[in-house]
Amino acid sequence: MEFFDRLTEEGADSVCTTGGAVRGMADEEFAGKVVSDCLREMLANPDSEKAGLFKEEDRDELIFHLFKLLCLGGAISQPDDQVSPYLDTTKLLYKDAVSVYRCAKTREIKAGARAYVVDSTASGLFPNPGSPHNFCLVVVNPLLRQATIIYQPFLSFW
């Protein structure tokens, strides 16, 4: 997946080795989430030195949201040392969530679904409304009359 190739590019700012191993680091906490590697630090810390690997418009993409959800996990997640399981699962989730079709008039390939990030703190959707690690995504496919909801509230385990 070309979108994530920048994770394994060589250099001082690389998050993973060229072989796909996630680079480790000393434990740090970000809003109740303890991270111990460069990949999760880049995703959990908006002020990370490595946050610049993905531009703001890249971070708005559905595939990035799915990848971030899988990598950060829940409060007591057990992270993997390799990036490939996250990339493989992200690809599967993305393919399952987004359907494409060919426009009959223009013969263009278009996405048949729209994704919406729900971050309302007023509705009581999340038990810890101030956490930046809360996640709710709704993928609506009007052609199939289908909505897929991915919901993960974050409560710090410690």
TrEMBL record:
The keyword Cytoplasm appears for this protein: yes
Keywords: Cell projection, Cytoplasm, Cytoskeleton
Subcellular location(s) per record: Cytoplasm, Cytoskeleton, Cilium axoneme
A cellular component annotation (GO) from this entry: axoneme
Family: Belongs to the CFAP300 family.
PANTHER family on file: CILIA- AND FLAGELLA-ASSOCIATED PROTEIN 300 (PTHR31078)
Descriptive protein name: Cilia- and flagella-associated protein 300
Lineage summary: Eukaryota, Sar, Stramenopiles, Ochrophyta, Raphidophyceae
